Amino acid sequence: MGYVPLGMVFGFLFVQAGGAWYQALAASLLVYAGASQFAMIPMLAAGLPVASLALAALVINLRHAFYGLSLLDSQPRHPLKRLYLIFALTDETYSLVTTLSPRPSPEQMALLAAVNQGWWVLGTLLGAWLGEQLPVSLVGLEFALAALFAVLTVEQWRATRMWLPLVIAPVSYGLMAWWWPEQALLLAMAVCLVASLLWAGRANRGAA
Amino acid sequence: MNDVYVLLAILAMGAVTFVIRALPFLGGRWFKQSPVARRVGVFLPPAIMALLTVHSVVDLGFAAPGQLLPATVSVLVALALQVYARQPLASIAAATVLYMLWIQLAA
Asked: Which of residues 33-72 of B touch A (CB under 8 A)?
């Protein structure tokens, strides 16, 4: 259910940026990744190359690579259901299927994922419809993406209880923004990747 | 927005996202057995989320300098609400409304 309002904001912003309702619908059906869908709106409106959008999806959704790990041992038997569950493994679906108790069966997980996407698609359509009806633009609504990232940061912290990444990230961003403002995000990500490899290597030796 | 361009972008983003989500199922054994990969998986996602948060605030300030302060304060509000109340929608809604009111009243 939580997906309806966020989906509405996505559909609304998408239409207000000059997109069509069916394009917003296609995004919610085929991409189905909230934060990167929000990020795609200004990029599409600016006509950035498709490769830039693909790179943005890679960066924003990279954390999803670790979600499947906790589902390796409980996958639906039917190959199509299995593929769909993998496709639909968003933040919300992941946290839902891994925190429900008793833990849902693999078949129920696929169903839950489909219900979640249904709410997201419904919200998208409602928001796109509103965006086409309302003549006023809601200035500042695009801030919802920043707020979504803030919420995800807190939830990542809650899951890991680690302060170091939260300190290294803004510091490296600040340094890179000072050195090369246009590429600050990408450079800071490279710094964080190196830092995580160093940290993982050291922790690994410490454990051995 | 041009249909072909938007469709290509959606397909590219969808494919990238699907491959990311499928990675553990493809290389699951290696992923699970490599302690370094697991630790990177602990360290990197919060760092990336923090970067994206900082970047989106800086981006808003870059678009219009007057928005840097409201964006910074609103993001801090979202962080604090999420830490203490843990209601994602309420955190996002409250911070977004604060930001919208602030920049519209200041304009």
From this structure: 35-58, 60, 71
